[in-house]
Specification:
disordered C terminus, 4 strands, alpha+beta
């Protein structure tokens, strides 16, 4: 089961060291976040060339970096409790002594006290806010880990399909060239072709067999890598993936780049993570500024003097005098907050650039696939015509072998273009959190 990633817990009142006003503010923030996320809820569906949603979720949630992020959420919850509880504890002070006076009398004396520093109200409110924001950061770190794991899964899944399809195409090419060699051998026996042509056909077959072995090796390595990284996923089935003429062709993008940017920025966990880090840096700066006023210490002492004949109960109040170190710590934390704000701005620019680049790649890849598919179909028809012409003795073998090689190259180019078009579109859907649930969307999809 997913750990709770919803922002609904962000504003949960702690009941500790915070007044009604702070509780209401946090509750309003939580309500706003819930409505903001649910208003853009994604509807996830199954795709014939991708693994099922349930299998993807199982694979992603068992990925090591995602499991680490789940532990990070537990750490964030513990850190929130720690900050809400505060850093101060009750100290017990005890002592014993012996008094001797000039008359020679000796007295046993002892004292016992309780002391505790009192966290100022502003510091308590800031600690509560820091704890809540730290939990938000760990939750968004989980979503970002799911996103990165999803990218890796998508890339490795398509690598398997791409290499496996190329291996299958080289296997078909080997079969075709074997048939071509048989045709040449029959013509040589009939005296219609020379031994040189048979050697040329055999050499073309051997080259294709080498390419087949190389393609098979790449397919095996890609399958092994996918299985090692995502053992719960399994490998694509023999019928998985688009094939020429199939209904599950790559689809064009119907929205403009502004639409995808708006959607991507609305759901990007990496951006939300940077914003959470910036907010924590701001709250830390405020906390260090508040710490320029030291917390006072209140104590209760009980003294027993002169063998218990005199007993003194006293209340003790102390407060440190602040020095330059507190001012320097406040200035340092403020500088760190400014650095975090600039890092957030840089993350925003990079994400905008990545989404725009992925959009352009997806649109160009779709156009490239259409052109490559049309070219492959034309070259394949020409290849078939030349093969028939050679059988009839109307064409030389060299021209046929060139046509075979060109046809294979065209089919490989069309295959790679097809997978590129499909993968880049899925990558855009993944980066805008429209492909698989990657955190909050697991709940948003049910609203």
């Amino acid at each position: 089961m997913n750990p709770v990633i919803s922002q609904k817990d962000v504003g949960r009142p702690s009941g500790r060291h915070v007044g009604l006003k702070a509780d209401l503010q946090l509750a309003l923030i939580a309500i706003g976040l819930v409505f903001a996320t649910s208003s853009r809820a994604a509807e996830f569906r199954e795709y014939p060339d991708l693994p099922p949603q349930a299998v993807v979720q199982q694979a992603l949630q068992s990925y090591p970096s995602v499991l680490a992020a789940q532990s990070g959420i537990k750490a964030g919850e513990a850190a929130r409790e720690r900050l809400e509880s505060g850093p101060h504890e009750i100290n017990i002070v005890a002592g014993a002594g012996r008094r001797r006076v000039d008359t020679g009398e000796r007295f046993q004396e002892w004292d016992l006290g309780l002391e505790r520093a009192l966290r100022l109200p502003r510091k308590a409110s800031l600690d509560v806010a820091l704890g809540q924001q730290g939990l938000v950061l760990s939750q968004n770190a989980y979503g970002d880990a799911m996103h990165e794991a999803g990218r890796s899964l998508l890339s490795k899944w398509f690598a398997v399909m791409r290499e496996r399809t190329q291996s299958e195409q080289w296997q078909q090419q080997v079969s075709v060239l074997k048939q071509q060699l048989d045709v040449v051998a029959r013509r040589v026996k009939a005296g219609d072709a020379s031994r040189l042509e048979e050697d040329m056909a055999r050499a073309a077959l051997m080259q294709a067999e080498i390419s087949l072995r190389q393609a098979s090796l790449r397919a095996d390595n890609a399958s092994m890598e996918l299985s090692r990284y995502f053992p719960a996923l399994g490998l694509p089935s023999a019928t998985t993936g688009p094939t020429p003429g199939a209904a599950e062709n790559p689809l064009p993008l119907t929205q403009n780049v502004a639409w995808w940017l708006d959607l991507g920025l609305d759901h990007n966990h990496e951006l939300m993570l940077a914003r959470a880090e910036s907010k924590i840096a701001q709250l830390t700066a405020q906390r260090m500024d508040a710490d320029r006023m030291p917390d006072p210490t209140l104590g209760l002492n009980y003294n027993s003097e002169r063998n218990g004949s005199e007993n003194v109960t006293s209340v003790v109040f102390s407060i440190p005098l602040p020095g330059g170190a507190r001012r320097a710590a406040s200035a340092e934390s403020q500088a760190h907050a400014e650095m975090a704000a600039q890092r957030e701005a840089l993350v925003l620019r990079r994400i905008e650039a990545e989404i725009s680049s992925t959009f352009n790649n997806a649109r160009a890849s779709y156009a490239n696939w259409q052109s490559a598919a049309e070219a492959s179909e034309l070259i394949q028809r020409n290849e078939e015509k030349m093969a028939r012409a050679y059988t009839l003795g109307e064409m030389g073998l060299n021209e046929v072998l060139v046509a075979r090689r060109q046809g294979m190259e065209a089919r490989l180019a069309a295959t790679l273009a097809r997978f590129e078009a499909a993968e880049t579109r899925y990558r855009l859907l993944l980066d805008t959190h429209q492909l698989w649930p990657l955190g909050n969307e697991a709940e948003e999809g049910h609203h």
